[in-house]
Amino acid sequence: MKKFFMAVLGILLVSIGLFFCILYLNLFSFGYSFLDYVYFIIRRIECHILWAGIVLLFFALHRKGE
Predict the structure, then answer these.
(1) What range does the domain containing 38 cover?
(2) What is the 3-state secondary structure of the chain?
(3) Is residue 53 domain-resident?
(4) 13-63, pLDDT tens digit by residue?
C-alpha cells in the first residue's frame, strides 16, 4: 500500500513539474535563448518538483530481487 501511494504521489509531482516546464516554454517568444531557458528552469522550485516525482516513482516501482 505504501508503494501505491508513493507511485501516485510521484505521478502527481511529475505531471505538475512537466506542466510548469512546458508552460515556461513561452519564454522563447519573449526572446530568451535556450541557455537562458535552462538557467531559468534550474532556478524555479516548481521544476524541481519534477525530479522529486521521478525519484519517488523510482523507489515506488523498484523491486528488490528482480
Answers:
(1) 2-61
(2) CHHHHHHHHHHHHHHHHHHHHHHHHHHHHHCCCHHHHHHHHHHCHHHHHHHHHHHHHHHHHCCCCC
(3) yes
(4) 999 999 998 999 998 898 999 999 999 999 989 888 999 999 999 998 886
Q: Measured between alpha carbons, how far is 60 from 46 in angstroms, rounded to an integer?
A: 22
Question: Structure pTM?
Answer: 0.80
pLDDT tier for residue 12 given thresholds of 50, 70 and 90: very high
User: What integer pLDDT is reported at residue 65 of this predicted model?
Assistant: 45
Q: What is the total count of domains within the chain?
A: 1
- Phi/psi for 4 (5° steps) reads -65, -45
66 belongs to a structural domain: no
Positive or negative torsion for Cα 37, 39, 40, 41: positive
Does residue 22 belong to any structural domain of this protein?
yes
